[in-house]
Predict the structure.
Amino acid sequence: MLWERESALAQATAALRHAAAGQGSSLVVRGPMGVGRSAFLDSLATLAREEGHLLLRAQASAAEERFRLGVVRQLVDSLRAIAPPEEFARWLGKAEGSLPCGTRAPVPPDAPAAATRPPWSALTWQQAPRWLTALLGSITEDRTVVLMVDDLQWTDTESLRALALPLAQRARWPVLFVFSVLPGDVRGNRQHVRDLLAPSPSTAGPFDAGSQAEAGPPQHRTVELTVLGPDSVRRLVEHSFRETADAAFLDTVWTRCGGNPLLLRTLLDEAHYLRLRPTAAHAAVAATLRPERVRQRLEAFFRAQPDQVRRAAYALTVLGTAGDAAFVAHLAELDDAGLSESIDVLRRAGLVDPRACRLTSGTVLRDLLEENMPAEERTAMRGVAAELLHRTGHPAELAAEQLMGAISLHGPEAVRILRTAADSALRRGSPRDAARYLRRALLDSSLSGRDRALLLIDLATAERSFATAASLRHVVEAVPLLDSVRERAEAIARLGPLQMDPPAFRIDTIRAAVAEELGRSGTDDWVERELALRLEAREHILSAQDPAHIQRALRRFRELGPSPRLATTGERELVTSLMHIAFVANAAPAGQLTRLCTRLLEREPPTPEHVHTTVPLVVNILSGAEQVEGAANWLREANRLAQRRGGDVEQAVIRCEQALVALADGQRAYAQEKIIQADALAGPETSGLPTVCAAVLAIVAMNTGRPELAEQILTQHRLHAENQHLAALLHVARGSLAARRDEPRTALDHYRTAGRHTERIGWLNPVVLPWSSCVALMHHRLGEHEEAMAAAQLEVGRSRTWGSDSKLGRSLIVLGRVTPGRRGCEVLEEAVALLEKGGNTYDLCQALYALATRQETSRTRRTSASARLQHLVEEHDSPELAEKVRRRLIRKAGNHGRSGNRLTPSERKVARLAATGLSNSEISGQLGTSSRIVEKHLTNSYRKLGIAGRRELVTALEKLDGEQLS
């Protein structure tokens, strides 16, 4: 697919028409590197074949530049591949007739026509032009010929000489010569190449002196291909991804490729390989792509250039937009004449802007050029450039950009420039730029010990807003370099406890060693006591899946009493970490923890930085207790500040918190919107979400009917196989998907596995993972009523221990559904009464629906529950839920007598076999049971389905499947 090439194709089409009319012509296709010359030739070749012309094509290359007559051989080989063997032999024979007798290739009399080969070894450089001219003359007696050579500048010298003679006589034949060339390539300056690119008027050859008088003047055209405009780039991106592209992604792609088709195509290939989408979230990753194919093309180009051209390109790369001619000449060590000549070569190759002394748009070229620079040369150029910019009064960040390109730095002055630039970046609210400058400062070989450690800690503080894994790694690297235990403790306290995953970089081992050393100091210093509390809080969070540690933490929690101190950051972090353990272990009632969480939240300002403390665990507990009135407003303000400051990690975590709060409040659509936003922010650069947040996203996804999204989030997390809670959540998600596929036994196995994971680590609160309810429902579907009752009662008991009315109400809904008879209705009535007290309308609707559709519910109560349910779903402003309830209630009312009882798995299996036409004895033989049992199952099936007999089974089962699917 060609874009913005209409004018060039029109010229090429006109040249083809002239050739077909018997007036030979030539066409030169020029354009900068990667502009699509070969693609243009492909389109022209297709057009020539469609019009019935004979195509001879060759691709010159650096590898075959010294291969004698290499391009001419390719042209002849392409002819052999498409021409009938007899015609090829005839054309070749006429060509050999132009040679002296001694140079003709001997051909055995009985040899097939296809075995005929040109006399390559016998051809001299003087004879090759006459031979090729005679060959083209013989072919054009029968067909119009299109002869193409791509990358003419790489053609071997003897082929260039051979092409010159037939090109000079082109007006004699129906032939079109097409050459593509890269402007600025030094090999394009050879005289033989220039002769082909700008041919003189055609002259008559020795074979037909009168033909020139009959033919018109020869036609010669030059087509200049240019880069694509922004609109074409947009259309190509959207065509490649087959979806609308985000403006930020398009801007990034345009900045990287500058409209160059090769750069654009290779960038899109790389993006597809990395499974990127054209979204704003993936724009930053797209900005880092450096296609290998482009690198190879650049290397080949510069290998063929003089050294001064390469040095000028490197100087332009180093200076970027800050360069001018004087700076470039100084860095490249060129005089005015050498600079002018070098810039001209680079400009004709499309690498330098035609209006300024800088590289063309398309930052990927600049990046690849810089990567190809020898390390020592790049470092020297960067150092000189930084000195020039600093000395001439440019901003510190502009000078720092030069130092960032150096592999190593020397001297404290460079570090001071980078620190100054980092401070400037932080002041303007750009932690990413600050981190970049600080990373470069770390390259100074003179930095060691405490100075290097302090720089690493500053870097980690900047990185925690967008690169959590890097932040953690730099703190781990810094701790051993610090002099005092207080400094080491302060460094670890900089890390947010949610980002401190136990397996990562041995962080728990380092924390334990520092905490032990801090404890041995026995000081009464207030700062060290505060640091000890903060390290202890991190220990509890990191060890929350260790049952032995859970018991120690619960004893510590009880020692603090019912109203612990919350005056300092350390005290609040310690209490929060202990509450988190009490919450997951179901060791403290919801009311007690809610009161403490409310006190904590009142003391914490709603800032984005709270994600680097234990506060997200407070939100988690409040959501579990469904007491989120104040948390929603608190998070709204924190999110507003996070959006203004631009920290991806902060925004992602806050949106996880908002999703959990919305779910607790019954706002399912809003909760789902927030998890999608958070998951989009947690891309490759952020190293993913913290474990707690990934769990939150999965829980919200499953509770909003998106188990497939939960599975995706969990499998992408780096700890989904090691973290017991994530593993349990993953099994619940897969169990939900199996239940959707009507595979209750598979679903039950997943749910039981999830339960084993949570029981193993001592997490007994059903709010954290209601696996037991899921087990109960699958047993109920399988007709295993005793097991269903036991599982449902287990969760109800634990919910009563937790003490949240909403959670207890949800557990009672499940128990009511699996409890037979009037007792089930009584349990559902209790669930309705509890849920009426809260604000979660969705859960109340579920309870009312279960009660209204239950067979044992009295008609009066069924009517009142249905009316209340209808009112709630309309008030809830959920059209999807309202339609679902309306449709199911109508179906239940209309089919109450025949669908009140569900077929058991055995009845369903027998009924399906009978529907295929098998007899009772055939069914009993296949299932290994008696005919009497088969007859009993069929009788029950007829009664439950409301049909008279076997003939109606197929229709009844299809209707039953449709009802279950809806």
